[in-house]
Amino acid sequence: MNWPAVRAIYLFEMARAWRTLLQSLVAPVISTSLYFVVFGAAIGSRLTVVEGVPYGAFIVPGLIMLSLLTQSIANASFGIYFPRFSGTIYEILSAPISPVEIVIGYVGAAASKSIVLGLVILATAALFVPLRIEHPLWMALFLVLTAVTFSLFGFVIGLWADGFEKLQLVPLLIVTPLTFLGGSFYSIDMLPPVWRAISLLNPVVYLVSGFRWSFYGQGDVAVGVSLAMAFLFLLICLGLVTWMFRTGYRLKT
Amino acid sequence: MSKERVRERTDRPARPFRAHRDVLDAAPDPLSPVGAMPPIISITGLSKVYASGFQALRSVNLEIRRGEIFALLGPNGAGKTTLIGIVCGIVSPTEGRVTVDGHDIRAAYRKTRRLIGLVPQELTTDAFETVWATVSFSRGLFGLKPDPGHVERVLKDLSLWEKRDSRIMTLSGGMKRRVLIAKALSHEPQVLFLDEPTAGVDVELRQDMWRLVRRLRDQGVTVILTTHYIEEAEEMADRVGVIRRGEIILVEEKAELMRKLGRKQLTLQLQSPLDALPPALAVHRLDLSADGSELTYTYDSQGERTGITALLTDLRAAGLRFRDLQTRQSSLEDIFVDLVKERA
Fold first, then answer.
1. pLDDT single digits (tens) B59-71
2. H or E stretch including A70?
């Protein structure tokens, strides 16, 4: 393993986050605070308790998951797309570094940024609502697993995209709607049976459910199923990235 | 054994032997001529067909000697950048084999890439990072631990030290070109590819780069450069390769190339213009200028007989008097143009 190279990519990407602190950290925290104001104060005053949890606290795992998904994708996709766009990818391709090391560097940095963001949002939430975390290790596992999986997904998008428009296409048109419809702000048990069944086709439901279970000990689906689905998404993304590197897709001519 | 003795045994006594430790270690016999050492790069039957069907390279065979400056010349689209891209790992070959220092570029890509530094043709730099950060990043990428001392030396050599904390986007085009070279040198490569290194740079920077390339060669670094500026190859190269439509059509020592293909021209400025060439002079290869005031005689300077004596005798017999004369050696550019034209 070429660890100095992994370290170089990781630190280079993390340095970018520091340069764009306002966009990387401050903006998501402000957005999350606004969600608390809108959902927590406006809706929460009418819908006080969901499954025995105050509504304001109930939405915290979903809010963290929303930021985690979108920021993981954004960080990783931009991280690999920008060198492709600017042409500096030549340096990565001509370096003595394997695809696995490239992925560890870029995805590791994107996931790290998302995890830090998730923890900052958690701390922000604690200022608004009383929080409890019943299974902290599970929470950490879901946090890391989701950040890594969706960073890998972002990496795939960053390799696939051939323009800034495409870079935004999947996160805006697919991921964000799936997250909103994935039980971030409600329990899918509150939906009519047909919509509940349809919601179970949404992969985000399993992530939000598992993550919420680690907070309050209850979720829309069994935690084992959530974990299995999270690993399945991880394997799918790993498979895609492996295929892309093997074929040189959008990387080598 | 002294370096002086080693120098005496090389086939190029005018140039100091590149006593780089790696070069000596790799050679079977340090006393053998540079040309007898195993090549640093060996390319065999290399072809590349792009997905569009365009064949960029056609069964290219080429060997690059250790420590030489090799200039690869060719018109646009000849395959120079594709060739470099394959050796560096950026482009996948369709068929053929490339070894660097005896290692296959695919089977042992970590070993081969560690030996190579690449300065691309385009000014593809980061924008928001500082000069120091981007050069340090390149060093790490090639598997080396941080070495601020080395990075400092490289930046100072390239007159970038004062700009080390500047963001790259604030630098001029010439400075960005230097940054690309600094990045390529950050991991102390043994082989340096310079793809059109002086395209779009001013004369001063070009000469700076020439000095740098010579210094690198003296340190034992093999330099392969592609260029459109033939004078650049003429100024620096030890050997010249010409590529056209994906085929290497010539590889030759520059001096030998100049000797073999070089023509010389003698221009005579006549005291009185001529309407036409006198028939008595038809035996000589003479050209009369449009205004009739100049006669140009082309000859092979390496030939056994240049024909100049006979020409001057015939000119005198014809009663032609001239007020001045000058000779001109054909440049590498003339040779290159002739070569490419010949094969068209």
1. 999 999 999 999 9
2. helix A55-86
Interface with B, mutate which of A91, A97, A252 (most B CBs under 10 A):
A91
Total count of residues recorded for chain A = 253
Give domain status of residue A252, yes or no: no
Q: In this structure, is the dihedral angle defined by the CA atoms of residues A82, A86, A88 and A90, taken in order, positive or negative?
A: positive
B62 lies in a domain? yes
**C-beta atoms of A248 and B141 within 8 A:** no
Q: How far is B293 from chain A (nearest CA, A)?
A: 55
Angstroms from A244 CA to nearest CA on chain B:
14
Locus of tokens 């070429």: A2
In a domain, B97, yes or no: yes
Chain B residue with minimal CA distance to A91? B138
A87 touches chain B (CB under 8 A): yes
In the listed set B242, B258, B274, which residue is the last one of a domain according to the structure?
B258
Give a yes or no: residue B324 inside a domain: yes
What is the amino acid identity at position B4? E
Chain B nearest C-alpha distance from A10 (Å)? 10
pLDDT of amino acid A193: 82
Nearest CA in chain A to B53: A253
- ipTM attached to this prediction: 0.80
pTM summary value: 0.76
- Which residues in A lie closer than 8 A to residue B91 (C-beta atoms)? 252-253
Asked if residue B274 and residue B173 are part of one domain, the reply reads no
> What does DSSP assign to residue A222?
-
Instruction: Say which range, A120-134, A204-218, B240-254, B328-342, has the weakest mean pLDDT.
Output: B328-342
Question: Domain of A63?
Answer: 3-247
Tell me the C-alpha distance between A172 and A91, whole Å: 31
Indicate yes or no: CB of A97 within 8 angstroms of CB of B133.
no
Question: What's the CATH number where B299 sits?
Answer: 3.30.70
Flag residues of chain B having pLDDT under 70: 1-36, 260-262, 301-303, 330-333, 339-344
